[in-house]
Amino acid sequence: MDSTLPAVAEELLREVRRAFEQASHVPDDLLLGLKFIFGPSAVPALDLVDQRSVTRVVSPSGRTAYQVLGSSGKLYTCYSSCHFCTCPAFGFTVLQKSESLLCKHILAVYLSQAMGACQELTVSEEQLTSILLAEEEEEG
Question: Which of 5, 40, 77, 96 has the greatest number of CB atoms lying within 10 Å of its CB?
Answer without folding.
Answer: 77
